[in-house]
Write a structure and sequence with these properties.
The complex is a heterodimer.
Chain A (H helix, E strand, L loop, with lengths): L2 E8 L10 H16 L6 E5 L7 H6 L9 E4 L5 H14 L6 E8 L15 H4 L4 H16 L3 H15 L13 H6 L2 E3 L2 E2 L8 E9 L6 E10 L14 H15 L8 E3 L5 H10 L9 H6 L9 E2 L4 H5 L3 H17 L12 E8 L9 E10 L2
Parallel strand pairs in A: 2-3, 2-4, 9-10, 9-11
Antiparallel strand pairs in A: 1-7, 1-8, 4-7, 5-6, 8-12, 11-12
Helix pairs in contact in A: 3-12, 6-9, 8-9
Chain B lengths: L9 E4 L5 E8 L5 E2 L14 E6 L2 E10 L10 E8 L4 E6 L11 E7 L5 E5 L2
Parallel strand pairs in B: 7-9
Antiparallel strand pairs in B: 1-2, 2-3, 2-4, 5-6, 5-8, 6-7, 8-9
Classes of the chains: A alpha/beta, B mainly beta.
């Protein structure tokens, strides 16, 4: 595949109820266009879940992006990464030269606490708020593999620690295991500091053909929806979908999990990072906590996971998250990540998982593999 | 709460007074479903017939929801239960305030007045 990430941009993340969604899109898009050195794009893919109809057109026409196709996609938490994937495919197929991918979510316009369960969904209607879906996975995983509450909390400690070096993160306060476990219980065994905060934000990327100079190349990009998740499913929710999507991306890029240097993955809840690192192949099934004990995935370790602070600390404006993850990996590969810079990474990965439909092993998962080329 | 059609599985007491779930059985491949789509999700056969599942099953996992969810008063215990003869269901566990161990034997006990499936632990 001959596709590059030419530029990225994000807003700051956090509760910013007074900021209009268009303002968020403008900030992220202007930064991405300037970073890419591009004035015009040939099409736009937009990721949002709760965005108002026309949320992207309302913002983009005012900055002169009009006339071109603008396509809005919804794939739960993976909406932004789905927009990115479609932009990558559109460039790779030769359909467009430069494509803008934008993710936007103004969560504070819709929610003050956890996202309300969806009333047309059987499990949503039965009161299974999203934290409780992950809590079910955590309870099952703890019983099968002996994962302790303190080990779960270690994910939050690591990622909150990383976020102290990320000026755009929502929560930049470090926490101890004891503080994480002492925070309010949300859905057993997940406490408040193990759940990503509701945040507002936008993120954007310009996807195009690689030039002759140093750049960040896309080597693999995969998108799948889940298989049925029911009494025949062997694993906790999401594991099989992430593993299958990652396998697609690894095959495209001709690399394996051992080649990755830096990873941004879906840690909406602490158990999510443990299950995801195993599904990506960084650890064997049931052994994900070992990565935390050894410091393997902590800043300074050989395969850093969520150097930005992850969803747990950056916050999770659903549609923006995937493109914020991408921006972090691009900054890491270019050596622009400041106090959270990992040591000379060559290969990076972005993984986002979206869920919420009963009986399905995930609405969507996206895995994108990136390589630094030149210098 | 809402006027949307209720998407949750239906439980009803039979002549023997025992609650069972009304679902659908694929007569082609034996897959058991909680909804009635135009064809089986596994083998794609349209041959689905009404069937009853339960009442007993094994707890797959559980949690206690401690945050406010519209229409409900926390805390409440929820479980995924694999019924002995069929699908995995989501149900409220009655009479407990903490998580219940996986593998615990449970039985359907009722459907609450707001439509939630309920299970109780078997001794």
């Amino acid at each position: 595949m001959r596709v590059a990430i030419k530029g990225v941009g994000t807003t700051s993340f956090g509760k910013q109820p007074e900021t209009h969604p268009s303002e968020l899109i403008w900030r992220a898009t202007a930064e991405a266009l300037a970073d890419a050195g591009v004035d015009r794009v040939d099409s736009v893919f937009v990721g949002t879940v709760f965005g108002a109809p026309g949320v992207a057109q309302r913002a983009l026409h005012a900055m002169g992006i009009c006339g071109v196709p603008i396509i809005t996609v919804e794939n739960a938490c993976a909406s932004g990464t789905t927009a990115l994937h479609e932009a990558i495919v559109a460039v790779d197929s030769g359909r467009y030269e430069n494509v803008l991918a934008v993710g936007i979510e103004k969560m504070t316009d819709s929610f003050s606490g956890a996202i309300h369960p969806e009333p047309t969904d059987a499990e949503g209607r039965a009161g299974l708020a999203l934290p409780s879906l992950y809590a079910m996975a955590a309870s099952r995983y703890q019983a099968l593999y002996g994962l302790t509450d303190a080990e779960l909390a270690m994910v939050a400690v690591k990622n909150h620690g990383h976020a102290t070096q990320n000026p755009r993160a929502h929560h930049r306060t470090p926490h101890t295991v004891e503080e994480v476990l002492a925070s309010r219980m949300i859905a057993d065994p997940l406490t408040l500091l193990q759940c990503c905060p509701i945040a507002d934000g936008a993120a954007a990327a310009v996807v195009g053909r690689p030039g002759s100079g140093a750049h960040v190349a896309v080597r693999g990009s995969a998108l799948r929806s889940g298989a049925p998740w029911d009494h025949n499913s062997a694993h906790v929710w999401g594991f099989d979908l992430i593993a299958a999507t990652a396998a697609d991306a690894y095959a495209m890029a001709s690399v394996g999990p051992g080649d990755l240097d830096v990873i941004e993955c879906h840690d909406a809840f602490t158990i999510g990072e443990i299950v995801t690192t195993e599904a990506l192949g960084l650890a064997r099934l049931g052994e994900g906590a070992g990565l935390l004990h050894s410091g393997h995935t902590r800043l300074g370790g050989p395969q850093v996971v969520n150097p930005s602070g992850g969803l747990l600390s950056r916050g999770h404006p659903l549609g923006a998250t995937g493109l914020a993850q991408l921006a972090e990996i691009v900054w890491q590969l270019r050596g622009q990540a400041g106090g959270r810079q990992t040591a000379a990474p060559r290969w990076g990965a972005v993984e986002t998982m979206g869920g919420g439909v009963s009986g399905l092993d995930g609405n969507a998962c996206v895995v994108v593999l990136l390589e630094k080329v030149g210098r | 709460m809402t006027t949307l059609p209720d998407p949750r599985p239906r439980a009803k007491a039979g002549a023997d007074g025992v609650f069972r779930i009304t679902g659908w059985l694929c007569t082609s491949c034996g897959h058991r479903l909680l909804v009635h789509p135009p064809r089986c999700s596994r083998c794609l056969s349209p041959a689905l017939e009404v069937s009853e599942f339960g009442p007993t099953g094994t707890l797959w996992s559980s949690t206690v929801v401690r945050i406010a969810v519209p229409g409900r008063t926390p805390p409440y215990a929820l479980a995924y239960v694999d019924l002995d003869d069929g699908p995995r269901i989501l149900a409220e566990i009655i009479g407990v305030a903490e998580r219940v161990s996986i593998g615990t034997r449970v039985a359907l006990s009722s459907q609450s007045d707001i439509g939630d499936l309920r299970v109780e632990m078997l001794l």
